[in-house]
Amino acid sequence: MIRLKRWLIKIIVITLLAVYGICVIRVNSKYPQTKVEIVGLNQCIEYQGADVLITDGYVMNETDINRYFSWEKEHYGGCIGIVADVLIENNSFTEKKVDLTALIFESGGWKNAIHYMAFTKLNEDNEKMSFNPILQPGENIQLKLPTFVAPIHMRESQWDSFLERDIYLTFSLYPEKLMAELF
């Protein structure tokens, strides 16, 4: 009786492993791993029908962090402000609406979106400032895209060396991951 139970358990386990293996193979063949394309500063990226140029990527100084991320600095025990200067150009013959809400800052396992309040403060002098700028043919707009990194986002051991990592602004994730290296 005990041998029969053991054989039955082995048969069930082998069957489950086979079904799992078949499912993994089917999913991986249906959705292949994405290709990653990384461009540098001042290289043009086509994004939603417009040409996007990352003209600069930098870390905010302490004065700017206190101005734009004071709440985050106080509540998270410090923070690092990161900004990407972006030039968006509509070189087509039709009006284009560019959705910036999908852009992601990332570095390894850390990811963060554009910080809305800092975005509005940094771009307050720009009358066309919007997360969804509408550009007429031949029109362009220069924007600053800010985000922040706080110690709560990672292990304590990673915090001190965070700025030594490559930091990217990600435009798309699938079918091709398109990233611009900020620094």
Give structural notes.
This protein has helices spanning 2-30, 62-68, 70-76, 116-122, 156-159; strands at residues 35-39, 44-47, 50-59, 80-89, 96-97, 104-107, 110-113, 134-135, 140-149, 168-172, 176-181. It is α+β, with helices and mostly antiparallel strands and 183 residues long. The protein has a five-stranded mixed beta sheet with strand order 1-11-10-6-7, with no helix packed on it. It starts with a helix and ends with a strand. 24% of the residues are buried. The model has no long low-confidence stretch (mean pLDDT 89).
* Alpha-beta content class: alpha+beta
Roughly what fraction of the amino acids lie in strands? 25-35%
For the largest sheet, list the strands in their spatial order.
1-11-10-6-7
Question: Which term fits the overall shape?
Answer: extended
Distance between the termini: 67 Å
**Low-confidence regions:** none
Q: How many whole angstroms does the radius of gyration measure?
A: 23 Å
DSSP helix fraction? 25-40%
Oligomer: single chain
Q: How many runs of DSSP E, i.e. beta strands?
A: 11
Question: Count of helices?
Answer: 5
